[in-house]
Design brief:
Rossmann fold, Nucleotidyltransferase, domain 5, eight-stranded mixed beta sheet
Length: about 425
């Protein structure tokens, strides 16, 4: 009888008590809302390794998704190599450029991705995906790429992060998770015991109250520090100007664009009546050429007037010798370029223009979520602003700035009388 050789493999990971329920869960969908330094990334990496090792499907594939590829490398790559090292030593493979590990016995692949280029995952299948720092990822990533990628293999989904308002992927999924079938875990610093009380006291003394509630006590409702348009949008909400805003076929529709190259393109659709701006629609996608957006405009069926884009769309590309404004013109989209003004001036223009706006709450939901979370980047060492933080909210916010600076009269608004009767609960048409 042939002898069977076995090798005992020990992964150098001991779960913290707070994450024992997480590792014991067998739910297909799970979400962990955790305070800073709780250890959620280490837990995710080890869940991926175990799942990949035990997977008996053909050509298993697992993914880890962070807000950006660089962030995935910074926060998870060393952990993945460290904890998977016992398996790597038995013949596994490490690909530094793709940030992937292939296990030896079944060929399972664990690969890191960045949500700034989420279309790279489009068309792939996955047996399991961990989404980390979901508060900095756009909700559209989940519905257009992640869920379809899991569908044919019945793959599992695991989401984690620290709150930053409701309108991002983490906030949306936390609401969704209240339905049956989800594993839900909320780890507050005051309850886990992971960080000593002496350290929490230092953090409470040094952080603004809203920051501490958000980062350490997992509050989704804490105000986002540095959000540029928070006050203006809150007032618009209170005044009933974020509601149902119908398309008026008598009025022409203008559009304002932020055209991405390798990332997202965002478009706001709006109509003007005197000093009143009716923002009726929003569209965002990535990884497509201008022909795709020409079809989108045609499909919406609006009666168009002006299309506004950033000033640099007139620059010719070296590869083709053509500018994007020329390519767009060949597709029937004739752009007017916006003034090339400092970003802060554009933000100020938006702030004084929002009080004139009525914004459709449903068709503009994704864009509104981005505007609510568009914020400044704080230099913690010098305690000064470093300008806008570039993340998933930037594209919608840039296009919104172009809308405002291209509008003919972006001065501080006077009190205006609406060109309709009175807003009612389900819309603005009485």
């Amino acid at each position: 009888m042939d002898e069977v050789n076995t090798v005992r493999v020990v992964i150098p990971y001991k779960p913290r008590d707070a994450f024992l329920p997480y590792h014991e869960s067998t739910n297909r969908y799970g979400i962990s809302v955790a305070h800073r330094r709780a250890g959620k990334t280490v837990a995710r990496v080890n869940k991926l390794i175990k799942a990949a090792y035990l997977c008996e499907k053909e050509q298993p594939r697992f993914g880890y998704l962070a807000p950006s590829f660089v962030q995935a490398k910074d926060i998870a790559w060393l952990y993945l190599k460290k904890f998977a090292n016992p398996l790597i030593q038995l013949g596994g493979k490490v690909n530094e450029s793709e940030l992937s590990v292939t296990l030896p016995h079944n060929g399972a692949i664990i690969r890191l991705y960045g949500a700034e280029n989420y279309d790279r995952m489009r068309g792939l299948y996955f047996d399991g995906i961990c989404i980390d720092e979901g508060q900095d990822i756009a909700p559209v990533v989940l519905t257009t790429v992640i869920l379809p990628a899991l569908s044919d293999r019945s793959g599992w989904l695991d989401i984690s992060g620290t709150p930053k308002g409701w309108g991002n992927l983490l906030g949306n999924c936390y609401k969704l998770a209240q339905s049956e079938g989800w594993f839900i875990q909320t780890l507050k610093a005051s309850e886990t015991g992971i960080l000593p009380e002496s350290e929490l006291a230092i953090l409470r003394a040094s952080m603004a109250p809203n920051e501490y509630l958000q980062e350490m006590e997992c509050s989704f409702d804490a105000a986002i520090t540095g959000a540029y348009f928070a006050a203006e949008l809150q007032k618009a909400q209170e005044e009933g100007r974020i509601t149902s805003v119908p398309y008026d076929p008598v009025l022409k529709v203008n559009t304002a664009w932020d055209l991405g190259m390798s990332d997202s393109t965002s478009i706001w659709f709006y109509q003007s009546v005197g000093r009143e701006i009716r923002v009726i629609d929003y569209y965002e996608a990535s990884g497509h050429g201008l022909d795709h957006y020409a079809r989108v405009l045609d499909k919406k069926g609006y009666f168009y007037d002006k299309h506004y884009g950033p000033h640099d769309i007139a620059v010719r590309e070296l590869g083709t010798g053509k500018s994007r404004i020329e390519v767009a013109a060949s597709l029937g989209i004739r752009f007017d370029t916006c003034p090339n003004i400092p970003v802060q001036d554009g933000i100020n223009a938006a702030r004084v223009t929002i009080p004139r706006m009525w914004i459709d709450s449903k068709r503009c939901e994704i864009g509104l979520d981005a505007l609510k979370q568009y914020r400044e980047k704080i230099d913690l060492k010098r305690q000064v602003s470093g300008g806008p933080l570039h993340d998933w909210t930037s594209h919608a916010a840039d296009a919104f700035r172009y809308l405002c600076v291209s509008y003919q009269d972006a001065k501080a608004p006077k009190k205006i009388k609406p060109a309709f009767n009175q807003a009612i609960e389900h819309g603005w048409m009485g």
